[in-house]
Write a structure and sequence with these properties.
Belongs to the acylphosphatase family. Its EC number is 3.6.1.7. It catalyses: an acyl phosphate + H2O = a carboxylate + phosphate + H(+). This is Acylphosphatase. This protein is an alpha+beta fold and about 90 residues long. Helices cover about 25% and strands about 40% of the residues. It has 2 helices and 5 strands. The protein has a 5-stranded mixed beta sheet with strand order 4-1-3-2-5, with helices on one face.
Length: about 90
Amino acid sequence: MASVCTLAWVHGMVQGVGFRYSTQHEAQKLGLTGYARNMDDGSVEVLACGEAEQVEQLVDWLKAGGPRSARVDKVLTEPHQPDREWTNFGIRY
C-alpha cells in the first residue's frame, strides 16, 4: 500500500473548540502521522500522512464537521510532498 500525504485547511468555527485535539485523536485511531495547527486566519491546517484509505477517512471526518463543538464551513485539500518524515500525529503551535 502506498503512503500519501494530504494538506487540509478547515474553515468555520474550528478554533477554541478542541478541534486540533479531536483531530489528533481521530488521526491516531486511523494510524496516521502529521499535525494539526491553528492558523492566523481562524482556520485549522491539518497534514495527514498514511495509507490513502485512512487519509481519505480523516478528510471525510473533517468535512463531516469534526467534533460536535465545531462548525465546519468548508475544507480545502491538496496532495502534499512533505520535506520530512512524520513519526506521530501532533499538535503544532
